From TrEMBL, chain A:
Residues 18-193 form the Transketolase-like pyrimidine-binding domain. Keywords: Oxidoreductase, Thiamine pyrophosphate. This is Alpha-ketoacid dehydrogenase subunit beta. CDD domains: TPP_PYR_E1-PDHc-beta_like. It is an enzyme of class 1 (oxidoreductase). Gene3D superfamilies: 3.40.50.920, 3.40.50.970. It comes from Nocardioides abyssi. GO terms for molecular function: oxidoreductase activity. SUPFAM superfamilies: Thiamin diphosphate-binding fold (THDP-binding) (SSF52518), TK C-terminal domain-like (SSF52922). Its cofactor is thiamine diphosphate. It comes from the Bacteria.
TrEMBL record, chain B:
Gene3D superfamilies: 3.40.50.970. Its cofactor is thiamine diphosphate. The keyword Ribonucleoprotein does not apply. This is Thiamine pyrophosphate-dependent dehydrogenase E1 component subunit alpha. InterPro entries: DH_E1, PDH_E1_Alpha_Subunit, THDP-binding. Keywords: Oxidoreductase, Thiamine pyrophosphate. Residues 19-306 form the Dehydrogenase E1 component domain. It comes from Nocardioides abyssi.
Length: 340, 319
């Protein structure tokens, strides 16, 4: 894979520009090298290297016992991971599409989320469930959803939503090292996006620390996943019009770094949340509520949401795009909100 | 062979008897408490099924893993958990193994004794048990996982997913079905196209073994053989222990749906009596007296223990 060295001011280290997929693959390989208890299972992850190619080369390096192909059996993949964690291993499992968390719902929302609690804190369940998420182009209503809010609603699960290659790698490494179960929502539409990623094996992005993707003074936009890039593109369009947008990517929804969002709103006095997930009872509603609870008198305008439609996603790629926020919609909404 | 007569076998039988009779006294003490004092939860009695539970678990090594089912205390006690934390869980006391989150038939656990707990959604332990066994296979720790379930849970789809993968991977896991004929109000015979749960085993390429669940030592021997097979790397076994549901689904269930003779206090083929037959009377009476005292003391201690503080609500959500 071609890599281009670049230097970032933040780390001072030499970064390479690599893809989001490659970043995830590196995180998996490095963590499996670091800790023999880490292993993986899922459908087509071994011989094929994953339907999206994320686990390519890992079975060759780590063998068929640590990178295991399963049958089509999501309750086993997740429930088995829970059981394997109780026996002292660290399973990193893949559901081929995030939508399949509904086929393993009992295992995710009851077993992973509650086993430790129900049994008086005697066990830890260090499990990572990798969930290829979001609209990717014609995958249909059962292979395209953004379900992170549902994961956020059930206590006991941590929720990561990386938007850049660097965060994909750093958050995945943090997830694997976390003693609690983590639902790791990788956006399928970002798999081919490239960006700078630190070379270091210790590039670990802590959960609960939002990233200010763009600093600005007039309006705070909170966005995740694919919507971060669209919010940033919108901000670039709005800047010449005199609207200086701050874009915040929470990076994890559980734990949620609400402090960074509130601090931003206290400066900009306006908030808009952009998410691909359906509008009703999405995480935008939660962020809006928490911000008005803590910073109501800092707000000069209502909190707005720009979200996915309250519909299933049609399979047609054009119709599908019409169901999730576009850069143009974000620009229009931001301009209207800034004018209030 | 495990069923050879001899001093070891005699010692084993007495130990199984001691545990079975202890659990019988515990069952009766809990029933008495539920009837007289009421209860902050549901108690799913396991009376009459103690023999198969203790017999099977007695074939496990200390570091083998256990997922128990919801009917009684025999499994966990046989794995070495003391009575007091078990009663503490039932009574919602801070002295319970869940430190007070319990109440009724609960999620007692003992990580040090590899009692891994139970899922409240029946049948969820199938996939978890297979996963635990997969971890043992990966680590090469030589441990076997034993998963108990009822004939009702045998209908869950998780069984299919777990059994298929466990058999393909030759995982060290043993499934033990306590077929007591009733899944709450549903007769097994009305919910199964085959006469036995074990009939399904060949479809998964694993042995299906039927054993008399009232014969604790027969269950022990069948389990020992399945555990040996699992430990040798030859994969899972499905054991079906035929038993009877003596009481309701939960204590207090009036069982209006039940058209077979409701058994009440009569336990046909009682595992306690069967085990006791081979033990000299004076020895048996000594064991009984000790067991009764142990149960009374542990129950009294649990009753005297404080209920949990509300702060436990917020504990153990995160590691």
């Amino acid at each position: 894979m071609t890599t281009t060295p670049v230097t970032t001011g933040t780390t001072g280290a030499t970064d390479r520009v690599i893809g989001y997929s490659r970043a995830i693959n590196e995180a998996l390989a490095e963590e499996m090298r670091r800790d023999e208890r880490v292993w993986m299972m899922g459908q087509d992850i071994g011989r094929l290297g994953g339907v999206f190619g994320l686990t390519r080369g890992l079975q060759e390096e780590f063998g068929p016992m640590r990178v295991r192909d399963t049958a089509i059996n999501e309750t086993f993949i997740v429930g088995g991971a829970a059981g394997a964690a109780l026996a002292g291993t660290i399973p990193v499992v893949e559901l081929q599409f995030a939508d399949f968390l509904f086929t393993a719902a009992d295992e995710i929302f009851h077993k992973l989320a509650k086993w430790r609690y129900m049994h008086g804190g005697q066990f830890t369940l260090p499990v990572v469930v990798r969930l290829p998420s979001g609209v990717v182009g014609g995958a249909g209503a059962e292979h395209s959803q953004s379900l992170e809010t549902i994961a956020m609603h059930v206590p006991g699960l941590k929720v990561a939503v990386p938007a850049t290659p660097s965060d994909a790698k750093g958050l995945l490494k943090a997830a694997i090292r976390d003693p609690d179960p983590v639902l790791f929502f990788e956006h399928k539409g970002l798999y081919r996006v490239k960006g700078p990623v630190p070379e270091s094996d210790e590039h670990v992005v802590p959960f609960g620390s939002a990233r200010v993707a763009r600093a600005g003074n007039d309006l705070t936009v909170v966005a995740t996943g694919l919507m971060v890039d669209r919010a940033l593109a919108a901000a670039e369009q709005l800047a010449p019009q005199g609207i200086d947008v701050e874009v915040i990517d929470p990076r994890t929804l559980v734990p949620l770094d609400i402090d960074t969002i509130v601090a931003s709103v206290e400066r900009t006095h306006r908030l808009m949340v952009v998410h691909e997930a359906s509008r009703t009872a999405g995480f935008g509603a939660e962020i809006a509520t928490q911000v008005q609870e803590r910073a109501f008198f800092s707000l000069d305008a209502p909190v707005w949401r720009v979200c996915g439609t309250d519909t299933p996603l049609p399979q047609d790629p054009e119709l599908e795009q019409a169901c999730i926020p576009s850069t143009d919609e974000i620009v229009a909404a931001a301009r209207a909100l800034a004018a209030i | 062979m495990t069923n050879d007569p001899g001093p070891d076998r005699e010692q084993l039988e007495r130990e199984v008897y001691r545990k079975v009779v202890t659990i019988r006294f515990a069952e009766l003490r809990i029933r008495d408490h539920v009837e007289k004092e009421g209860f902050g939860g549901f108690w799913h009695p396991g009376i009459g099924q103690e023999g198969l539970q203790v017999g099977a678990v007695s074939a496990m090594q200390d570091d083998d893993y256990l997922y128990y089912a919801h009917r009684g205390l025999g499994y966990a006690f046989a794995k070495g958990m003391p009575l007091e934390p078990l009663f503490g869980d039932l009574l919602g006391r801070a002295s319970g193994s869940t430190r007070g989150k319990g109440g009724g038939t609960v999620h007692f656990a003992d990580a040090s004794r590899h009692v891994l707990g139970q899922g409240g959604t029946l049948g969820s332990s199938f996939v978890m048990g297979a996963g635990t066994a997969a971890a043992s296979q990966l680590l090469g720790d030589g441990r076997v996982t034993v998963v108990f379930f009822g004939d009702g849970a045998s209908g869950r789809g998780t069984w299919h997913e777990a059994a298929l993968q466990a058999s393909v991977w030759k995982l060290p896991v043993v499934w033990i079905c306590e077929n007591n004929g009733w899944a709450l109000s549903a007769r097994f015979t009305e919910q199964s196209p085959t006469e036995h749960v074990a009939d399904r085993a060949p479809a998964y390429g694993m042995p299906g073994v039927i054993v008399d669940g009232q014969d604790a030592m027969a269950v022990h021997d069948a389990t020992a053989e399945a555990i040996d097979r699992a430990r040798r790397g030859e994969g899972p076994t499905l054991i079906e222990a035929k038993t009877l549901r003596i009481r309701g689904h939960y204590e207090g269930d009036r069982q209006p749906y039940r058209d077979d003779p409701v058994l009440g206090d009569e336990i046909p083929n009682d595992p306690v009596h069967r085990l006791g037959e081979s033990i000299p009377d004076d020895v048996r009476r000594g064991i009984d007296a000790e067991a009764r005292t142990q149960v009374e003391q542990a129950f009294d201690a649990a009753l005297a223990a404080p209920r949990a503080d509300r702060s436990v609500i917020f504990e153990d959500v995160w590691a």
